[in-house]
Amino acid sequence: MRTVTTKTNVYKFDELSEKVQSIVINEHIEFILEDETEFLSPNVLRAIEDAEKMRTPWFTGEYILEYARDEVMESVRENEYLITGEIFA
Question: Which SS3 state, helix, strand or coil, does residue 32 take?
Fold first, then answer.
């Protein structure tokens, strides 16, 4: 058997490039819509309802960012990331 140790650079959200931050935010919003549907905040629910009411479901993510930006940003800042935006586990 052989043990190998590697070093990995890990970044806080604010240390990532703007492009990668945008990717992280979009992936988080997709996660909210796909996996967190039973725990949605009132702001996120309002965003979903408004997108449905306007018959523009493709804008749901933008509505979420508009109505629940603080919640989204708080969530993405809780994690650490690789330079590519993948969550470091």
Answer: helix
